[in-house]
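Dock flavin-adenine dinucleotide; give full complex structure.
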Amino acid sequence: MLDLKSGYPWWAVRNGLTHDFPPLRADAVADVAIIGGGITAALIADELVEHGHSVVVIEQRDIGWGSTAASTALLQYEIDTHMTELAQRYGEDDAWLAYGACARSLELLKGVADGLGETDFAWQDSLYYASRPRDRASLQAEFELRLRHDLEVEWLEPDALLIRYGIRAPAAILSHQAARVDPYRMANLLFARLQARGMAIHDRTRIEKIETGTHGVLLHTDTGHAISASRLVMAAGYANETWLDKRVARNRSSYAFISDTLTDDQLGPLRNTLIWESARPYLYARSTGDGRILVGGEDDSIDIPARRDARVLRKAEILRKKFGKVLGEIPLEPAFSWAGTFAETADGLPFFGVHPQHGDRVLFAMAYGGNGITYSMLGAGLIRSLIEAQPHPLQALFSFDRLDRM
Ligand SMILES: Cc1cc2nc3c(=O)[nH]c(=O)nc-3n(C[C@H](O)[C@H](O)[C@H](O)COP(=O)(O)OP(=O)(O)OC[C@H]3O[C@@H](n4cnc5c(N)ncnc54)[C@H](O)[C@@H]3O)c2cc1C
């Protein structure tokens, strides 16, 4: 089993095991089987059940204990690849298709969160500052392209940046469309609601073998049971890649820490603003509803859990120092620190859909990239369209066919 996080991720510590989802103890049948019990599976299952499909969800750990529990959950339409860069790769229409969809995804996430109770969802601004003078020109081009597509953005010169945010940087794009959430809680509440409505969810059950046929799929669990379904959705996070002969993304480790609770005054602009920067890997920070600050970044290519574990405290200290250089007035000590696996595709876009290796009964849901949760939300609608054989605007752009153009 791929270990997706090190240390205790804040969300799991804060919320604990909120609901009971028993292991699978008998064979099962459903229209759609979903492997994975993270935020991607939760959103897809919700969308499918809402539209009348019977669904069974299988998770090998406890629900939400994959990368969902480690996620810092900044919700942004602005993905790690600039819109200008996507336009160069695929043309402006496709670049806008991705960015526009991600902006709409925030509204969809808000809609889901509203129906769940306390998920700590809150609208935020997002401040993207130039880390170095030489990044200013590319940020300006990015700003102009976004403005042309009516995204709600402001350009901040150094003076305004200093006065409004206390940040010294060559320039920044301020976006008024962003949000934050507790992703673990959201996934757990979604699954609890689905379970209450009769959907079968089993955690601590691992899928060990997948058999595909012309009429459906047969899954075999480590508990000795079989699940038959017409379709299979692979929402297994970064473990999805273990079912493919050829990799489609590279795994990275990302590090984060959370502070103790601060006062509104101490939080200052971070009360309602997410911040990140143009350097790669980038430093980022956000607040939580209970007044803490979450700082993340320092991504590296370590993919071995024990080596990643050994780095958590040192990385937290580096993050604290880097944060201090940007927003030094905010007093910050790491209360919890952790690391998690996260995957990057070459163009920053996710993969949703069938893969030639598994035929058309198996749909992959790979919400990869720094904006995975925004993608998961879009993937829910896209996966349903594929199952119902309906067209979807993102079908081609988010498909594995893109690999030929990368
Ligand atoms: C440190 C960090 C910070 C991040 N920050 C952000 C952010 O700010 N904004 C954002 O949008 N995204 C962020 N992400 C990315 C986001 O967290 C992920 O995109 C998201 O959590 C992926 O959810 P998932 O459900 O696809 O995967 P997971 O949560 O990993 O769920 C997949 C599940 O599948 C299960 N599974 C795998 N194989 C099997 C099997 N054979 N049988 C049964 N179960 C199986 C796993 O146990 C796992 O629980 C971050 C990620 C990390 C690690």
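Observed: The longest helix spans residues 92-114.
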